[in-house]
Specification:
The protein has 208 residues and is mostly helical. Helix content is 65%, strand content 0%. It has helices at 24-44, 51-58, 62-69, 72-93, 104-121, 123-128, 140-156, 162-170, 175-185, 189-203. α2 (51-58) packs across α3 (62-69). The longest helix is centred in the middle third of the chain and has 22 residues, at 72-93.
């Protein structure tokens, strides 16, 4: 179990800290380019995201894209970072049931469903970014997610090793698992979410 429970606001945010110090026009350019990249992914998949394509979609010169992100990999990482930061802010200080104030089981269900939607929405990027990397569970994003789940499990009174059950609860939300469930098993995102919720509620029945 977690020996010293941190206050939720002590959880580290995975964020590109430079954004808050950008000039207003630079920040607008960044958002414009991220929106253009997301449009390309939504319409054509992650493979369609090239620096040229993003520049055309955003109506700017290719040099602007390179200046903002340095490389295609930098752009893809910025997209993930932007979405991850928004999700973390939501569960740390956003409205219920995802944010503080709701019962821990309802927060956990809301978190899992929101995490799953984000995984599906960004699946191509996550897979390109190394979702099959054996060290991915040590990545700060997964570590923060795991700690959040552990805190909710502790609130529910779950006994034993929280590290094990927290990873088990999150396993179906991982990009590799989601790809298998969508493409091989043939489930929809809604079916995955409903089955995941049933699993969690059965696992935690009688607690809290």
């Amino acid at each position: 179990m977690i020996a010293d429970r941190p206050h939720p606001l002590d959880l580290p945010l995975v964020t590109g800290g430079a954004v808050s110090t950008e000039r207003a026009d630079a920040a607008r350019n960044r958002q414009l380019l991220l929106a253009a990249a997301k449009t390309l992914i939504d319409n054509h998949g992650a493979a369609a995201v090239t620096m040229d394509a993003v520049a055309r979609e955003a109506g700017v010169g290719k040099g602007t894209v390179f200046r903002r992100f340095g490389s295609r990999n930098g752009l893809m990482m910025a997209l993930l970072d932007h979405s991850e930061s928004a999700l973390q802010q939501a569960f740390l200080s956003g409205p219920e049931p995802l944010g503080p104030g709701a019962p821990p089981l309802e927060r956990l269900i809301a978190y899992g469903r929101t995490r799953l939607k984000m995984t599906v929405d960004h699946l191509d990027i996550l897979l390109e970014a190394g979702a099959d990397n054996p060290d991915r569970l040590s990545h700060p994003v997964w570590a923060v997610s795991t700690q959040h789940v552990q805190l909710l499990l502790r609130d529910l009174g779950y006994p034993g090793h929280l590290e094990v059950v927290a990873n088990a609860v999150q396993a179906p939300l991982d990009a590799m698992a989601v790809r298998h469930l969508l493409d091989v098993v043939g489930l929809s995102r809604e079916q995955i979410a409903d089955d995941w919720e049933t699993m969690v509620r059965l696992l935690l029945s009688g607690l809290g």
